[in-house]
């Protein structure tokens, strides 16, 4: 991939907005399609109002092998030829652009609302007819012996809202349509308009189980724009918090999966160990999800010496208990029988859709921001990346177990040897005007991407947020056909995607 | 199998002794906030402007805290340069009215037990349906945590059920957005009378961090009367549990917080 911008764009480096080429749409289109064809990944594709009639399309691409990013753009009016037919990775992004900016990607194979809201990034001189939020073009299959099963948005348990529509033949699923947007809160507009201190709390509320991940990405982008340098200590504490979040989520999900197949001992133990990890975040930050910890310039709370010693003790105990419970769980034949061969994501689907995180690694793709685009403490301390090949529930479960073990090792090592330095550097200065920054984080679900563009006064002009769920919801839909409806909860838990993170 | 049983045996009981034992929190835990007016300067307006939330209210009788708007962020306390705002380690703060969350000192009158028929009906068995209406997922995570072996909500006869028809009430989380408004109203209507409504988290109480978004209705709308307000972002599971047990009359004597001085 050629770096079109001259000055290399990397994770957490900003470049002048003027350095992002604005190309004719045909050249933009073929540039993105060719790059993705040659192995690049579409990290972000979004629109922003440019003048009173036009929308600027911006694509951010990642070359994972070289650790480089690239940005390119094009100006369009009300329509443009869609990228999706030749670049399926763009499919959800283009639905999003269509909804946010009222621009039609012509030739998109399945253009339907993404979150069901009126456009909130419309050029000032354009107006569009009001949006009917209830009007949704559901997929249909006709046939005498087929039936539809609809679930949600209010669910049987304590689950975020979403609507799932199964087309089934008997118990066998032919097709699953996932309708989201029920958690839409207008996050991007808030980040673009609120004062910095309020926006920070919104960034922490993009996905409530990924507080650290999104706060880290948000601060990463602002720090790049503000030329703020964090101390090694602040970087290490942030990395530790991110891994604590990963531990809590992976262990909790392993418990929830065990609960779904009625393997109660693992469900109980993992559920409790998850709480131990959350309580470490509570000790550190005053909140079980780490709210209030990550702030521009570093961290708002430092790790004291006693705290570090106590954390190492707890983590050592968690590691031992986890190992015992995981051994039991994964060697039980009844567990293996329920996990194996269920919810398979074929590896070509994974490649075409650009899946991220453990879901991609379970299909054999060694994709991980921590090693591909390392930042902060991850530049010095490497976490070995594991992959599995089968792409099924078992592969995702085994992979998460491995990641728990490796995160625990990393964490204990980091906390034992925290570098010196101030917890938080001054970050009150202005942001560089007219620059674009990209911050990537490997959250526990996969790649989080925050792209922030400033205007001529250094205020935030566009904040583009991507939670890994944005890519991976399509994986869940792709994994279901051929399985039974009753396998859905298990399959769903093995991904445990965020509704809030997707819906923004 | 034998190994599993051995581990179970060695594991012992992991459930908290709460409410019969103490609820313990680490030093940095941000529980109920307090306002010490004696430390206030003349610049409350500046503090309010620096606040990441609308927790600091400026009225004709001086500043007050709105626990329903609080986001329990260290930035809220930091907004006052005189240190007049602080967080205590007290997890108890659920009230029976929205107005009860507004306090000149931070002290609130905690929720009172249901009376009469409602107490007879729900006191020993309460079935709730969860409705999530534009949240970040954080509040739900804590409601789920209430079901684990540590908090073990079921030991109090409280359960989350799969249908509003089986429920005695709903527990609402989220800022209430247009995409969930109808589903919230329908779920509420589907619960047979008499029914309870519990608003959990800053979002459901007043919109939370999303209050300024055109996609937020600012929490549970007026047409759905709320019986229990549980502040937090998200509330600690014990804050929710404390509120529920007070409502059911299972925590009462000696533990009720001091009354907020009226008229201040
Ligand atoms: S109150 Fe806070 S934790 Fe709860 S849903 Fe709202 S933002 Fe999330």
From TrEMBL, chain A:
Keywords: Oxidoreductase
A molecular function (GO) term: NAD binding
Taxonomy, superkingdom: Bacteria
InterPro entries attached to this UniProt entry: ComplexI_49kDa-like (IPR052197), NADH_Q_OxRdtase_suD (IPR001135), NADH_quin_OxRdtase_su_C/D-like (IPR037232), NiFe-Hase_large (IPR029014)
Any Pfam family: Complex1_49kDa
Domain named NADH-quinone oxidoreductase subunit D: residues: 272-426, 431-500
Protein name: Hydrogenase
TrEMBL record, chain B:
Cofactor annotation: [4Fe-4S] cluster
GO molecular function: 4 iron, 4 sulfur cluster binding; metal ion binding; oxidoreductase activity
Family annotation (Gene3D superfamilies): 3.40.50.12280
InterPro entries: 4Fe4S_Fe-S-bd (IPR017896), Complex_I_20kDa-like (IPR052375), NADH_UbQ_OxRdtase-like_20kDa (IPR006137)
EC number of this enzyme: 1.6.5.11
Keyword annotations of the record: 4Fe-4S, Iron, Iron-sulfur, Metal-binding, Oxidoreductase
Record domain 4Fe-4S ferredoxin-type: where: 31-61
Family that this chain belongs to: Belongs to the complex I 20 kDa subunit family.
PANTHER family reported in the protein's UniProt record: FORMATE HYDROGENLYASE SUBUNIT 7-RELATED (PTHR42989:SF1), HYDROGENASE-4 COMPONENT I (PTHR42989)
Name used for this protein in its record: NADH-quinone oxidoreductase subunit NuoB
Organism: Eiseniibacteriota bacterium
